[in-house]
Amino acid sequence: MRSAGQWILLLLCMLTACKNPNTPEQTAVKFLNSLYNYDFEMAKSLSTRNTWSILNIMDARTKDIPDEVKQENVGKLKVNITKTVPETDSTYIIYYTTEPDFQIFPALRILKMEDEDGKPRYRIDISSLDSLSGGNDAFIEEEILPIRDDDSAAAEPGSGNSQ
User: Fold this and answer.
1) What is the CATH number of the domain that holds 117?
2) Which one, out of 20, 23, 28, 71, has a CA that is 20 to 30 A from the CA of 87?
3) Does 126 reside within a domain?
4) Does the bond joining 100 to the residue before it have cis omega, within 30 degrees of 0?
């Protein structure tokens, strides 16, 4: 016979196993912690292939950091999810703050996928077109002036005007 303590422990294990530990927010926290701890293999396991090129660049740029320095970061990042916004039926945008400040992305896009058992799995989806510093910062805003007729004539080949 099992003791009452063993039954309680078994019951607690079964309850925690039934709870889905894979939510968009938990995925975001794990991903950010893995980046902060230079664990790019873990970050890849939490992300889509679109994200891997950025992670490979980050990994290559941090190869020279000594392991002792990398170990100093472990367990020190506190992530606070401030807002989860459904973008589509299968994507969420996660807004967050960190302590210490480690916001290399203004927000994280989470893609909802299903595993072979039909259970939802969430993966970070950052394309190489997303800016590391803030989304639309990658685009240059400039004023486009209209073309004047005399400018286009000067640029035409064989017009006699060469520049």
Assistant:
1) 3.10.450
2) 20
3) yes
4) yes
Residue 121 corresponds to which tokens in the numbers above? 């799995």
Q: Is the distance from CB of 35 to CB of 59 less than 8 angstroms?
A: no
- Extended beta strands in the chain, E state: 78-86, 91-99, 108-114, 120-124
Q: Which two tokens stand for residue 140?
A: 């240059």
95 lies in some domain: yes
- 107-127 pLDDT, tens digit per residue, is 999 999 988 888 999 999 987
* pLDDT, tens only, 3-55: 665 555 544 444 444 444 589 999 999 999 999 999 999 999 999 998 999 99
In whole angstroms, give the CA distance from residue 77 to residue 39.
13
Q: Domain range holding 68?
A: 20-136
Could you give the CA distance from residue 58 to residue 80 in angstroms, rounded to a whole number? 23
Q: Among 37, 47, 39, which Cα is nearest to 110's?
A: 47
CA distance 99 to 79: 7
Tally of structural domains, the chain: 1
- Nearest-CA neighbor of 32 among 124, 133, 132, 136? 124
